[in-house]
Amino acid sequence: MNSNMILPTPYYIVYESRLRHNLDILDEVRRRADVDIIMALKANALWKTFGVIAEKFPDSTASSINEMRLANDYLKGKVHTYCPVYTHSSFPQFLAGSSHITFNSIVLYQRFRPQIKQWNTEHPERSVSPGLRINPRCSVIETDIYNPCVPGSRFGVNAENLPELPEGIEGLHFHALCESSSYDLEIVLEALEHQFGHLLPQVKWLNMGGGHLMTRKDYDINHLVSLLNRMHDRYPKLRLIMEPGSAFTWQTGDLVTEVLDIVEDAGIQTAIIDASFACHMPDVLEMPYQPEIKEAFPNKEKDSHPGHNYRLGGNSCLSGDSAGPWKFPHQLKSGDRLTLRDMNHYTTVKTNMFNGVQHPDIYWQPTDNSTPQLLRRFTYEDYRDRMD
Ligand SMILES: Cc1ncc(COP(=O)(O)O)c(C=O)c1O
Asked: Please, are residues 339 and 274 in contact by the beta-carbon 8 Å criterion?
């Protein structure tokens, strides 16, 4: 950021250069592996940044009418839709705004099949390709809340219940990964082919869901490319699709806060900040994980440094609105600024206004290092009108 610029805290800041860096990596994968990469809106709905994304990746995947509308309005590419359920009242809107619609069960597909047939007859130029979500029952994710293949999962049809392809289904969809590597994908693909391999030559497309963290530094792109190219060799007519969310906005933004007070109990020092884990960084509590802080020692290294331990406390009244400890090279005091790293993907979309605490501003830092642009400032009216 422009070093003369002191913005009022708390604020999220998204860096154009980092976003473009991620898009370049995804573009390389797309070219080398001949795969369609579409952005999952659930991880990022900052539509004022969509102009940059749509330059290379206008296509997306939506999981609600609102996401689908946002994609149609601001990305303007194809929208693949997957929702666990559809209703008769909402389905016509999905048909009008989607290029692909994936169903979570055979019953659901049969319920809406007549509407798809009618739509495709009346709108051949905007026909919708129906798909079915399958469950490869292969768990490579340790945290159950993020594991779509956990036993008893409500997502997708398992192989026992899918002896043959329902008539009219054009694609298969699975989602089994979360912040995963290409080696995890390899394990899932092996399980998938073992159970559903006979169906793959019968469909036009295979959507491999999200969770492919291709923009993480240690991700083995070469391995992914060879894995996908081997899939092309085995199923030459099958169009491969990936729909990552996190990989697009991984490490593209920070949350900058200020220390407002330091309290102590039972030997634990807590620095109260002007932001909340519960409201502004909910994944820190849900996932759970400990974000890196620019001004603290890296989490992995902290034991090897002398320093001062602090827990950070949010400014809501929830008892559990705290995280840490982090180790700092110096003692913290009121007025210190702290930069919590990697606070864009799944963060800016999941915030809430619990307790009515002030929502952080959202800034965009252009690549040329010019003045950050304010994308959004939240007001009392935003809080009030959600309850209207
Ligand atoms: C069906 C589906 N597709 C794509 C994604 C995006 O996953 P990620 O952001 O981990 O890449 C998710 C995440 O929950 C999902 O449920």
From this structure: no
